Amino acid sequence: MEGPFNIAEYRERIQQVQQRMDRAGMEALLVADPANMNYLAGYDGWSFYVPQMVIVVESDPEPYWIGRPQDANGARLTTWLSSDHIRSYPEAYIQSADHHPMEVVATLLRELRLDRRPIGLELDAYYFTAAAYLALQRLLPAAAWRDASLLVNWVRSVKSPAELTLMREAAAIAQYAMETALAVIEPGVQEADAAAQIFRAEIEGVEGLPGDYPAIVPLMPSMERTTASHLTWVDRIYQVGDVVNLELAGCRHRYHAPLARTLYLGTPPDDYRRLADIVLTGVDAALQAVRPGAVCEEVEAAWRRCLAASGYEKASRLGYAVGIGYPPDWGEHTMSLRAGDRTLLRPGMTFHLIAGMWIEPRGLEISETVAVTETGVEVLTHFTRDLLTKTDFPTGRSA
Amino acid sequence: MEGPFNIAEYRERIQQVQQRMDRAGMEALLVADPANMNYLAGYDGWSFYVPQMVIVVESDPEPYWIGRPQDANGARLTTWLSSDHIRSYPEAYIQSADHHPMEVVATLLRELRLDRRPIGLELDAYYFTAAAYLALQRLLPAAAWRDASLLVNWVRSVKSPAELTLMREAAAIAQYAMETALAVIEPGVQEADAAAQIFRAEIEGVEGLPGDYPAIVPLMPSMERTTASHLTWVDRIYQVGDVVNLELAGCRHRYHAPLARTLYLGTPPDDYRRLADIVLTGVDAALQAVRPGAVCEEVEAAWRRCLAASGYEKASRLGYAVGIGYPPDWGEHTMSLRAGDRTLLRPGMTFHLIAGMWIEPRGLEISETVAVTETGVEVLTHFTRDLLTKTDFPTGRSA
Q: Which residue from A154, A164, A213, B116 has the fewest beta carbons nearer than 10 Å?
């Protein structure tokens, strides 16, 4: 087995999942979210574009992996599972009108005499399509289906020391990627050339810590595109006066540390500088509110108060749980830093705290990846927390 | 509107979809696949990690876009839609236990008096989860749901001249990325450093043609990992005698040209060289079978015969339709080059023809992106079609 964890840590994760299954009255759990599959089995491959699953059974300390034949070798190489717990469906079932890969899931559940028992499903997981759900209902008509959405995600919400180490390493890569962005973006440079260097830095990593691919590509809208949050580069050359929102991440063994900053090419106008100062004050207030025993919404409230005092508001949440991720998301979908989320903060929880103002005429973003500690907060990402500016340009392009 | 197509081309696409809807008796079509959303509306943003849709209505030449408020600006910037056809759901509906973004879809369908009519759903589309399906069923109990899986994908299967131009441009980028891989991979180099340079090349693109992010990261398993098809780089240094399978792509405005080759660091042993020759002969035979009027399975049969003559077989398909893609896939999920697929080849259809032998002890891959022409085949990708080898290494590491 490759990978950064020992088997004891995987077994502990399985036990925690089984305890939650037991409380929810589930005897089997079908795990389709690739991040959860990685968390429980160690599986790591870009094969989530075809049906695949990890199946946790109440009475078995070892889960099953089910996927495509050409990926089963990948399961043997990347998971801690014994070979009798690695199954595959016939290649011909792929994108077939006559068969569905869930047939093999059904066969296994019958073999384990679980086909008439309560079975958990991740109904809202990426890559668990409505068609797969309907196929399971058809194939196992006597099963008692339970919604197990986020069951594994909640186990993931508190990180172990080994997981926090990987996130600190990812943060070092994020810092290098942001330094690269700041170095390369200037008037006269193609947006795609800047994106190329940011990608290079994310994957190259830093000394002794090669990068894994982040679950989201560098988001880097410029100018009026900064009013939207999820746009990538376009065929365009940076100019003096440009605003560029940069949201990127470092990734180590699928663990992420996202980091966002805004870069202004030139001297920002007063009202934009003022917006930046308000956001920075709000982020400081939010960080000071992070401590064990506080609840998620208190962190957002601290930020909201600062903003309101200056006449601003932000409808979208201030952050979310972060950790393992595969495209399309590095968020864990459990806690959000927003009004109404009363989840208690516990040591080891990790968040991407992102103050994103996607407003007219120019947006602005400042974010940090943080961990709750025994006494307060550890900011994992390290980069000048300010509106970034560049005014010293190549000949003929001074601001 | 940004983007590479004029509005007339989008309108023509909508008409083709409406014709298929009409034949299938659907009065509305809910499009969740981000590639289909891009194809019909031009929408381009990394926002598919939250619910979003394009809705085509039988009687309206213009579709609707529905998504998150912070992405609606992205829809205004990237689509050809008028602002009254761009809708958003409240931010609080994101990952909420009390509300679902499909409520806004239901509201629109009621407003259009379509809530009791036959409505098509992409039941097997990525990002259309079982939970979203169940929410729609609950919200619109009187609707007559129809499975519209692949309806739009089939319209996409024949490319226009403008689309083929983008795929040729993408192929030029794929060539540059493969040249980069060949230049950088050698004994003593970190796998991640090679991956970083391949990423850089994919995004940097070639003169005047900046790259977009491919839907799949560079797949580049080495050594025993070449027996699996979807593994990425690991914390490892290349050595003399390594085999590296390289599957990468160029991408222009979401259109892909994938390209795969295997690189051997040193002089390949005779049996491996022989395997490469068999694969190359098989690929030649398959390419010669591509012509309008042939059916998909004939292309695979030509390959299969060559392989069988040498005692090999390959269970997985020889290729698939390719074009627009977002993570996790650049495949279109319509035609496959495999036994049983009787789809007629038509000019403008495009395939990733991939001869992937994921076998013990070392795998091997050779692929091309091809288009069916009026008379035969155009191979869009251009790179020495052979087992790549390197024997001239830095001092002290000669093979």
A: B116
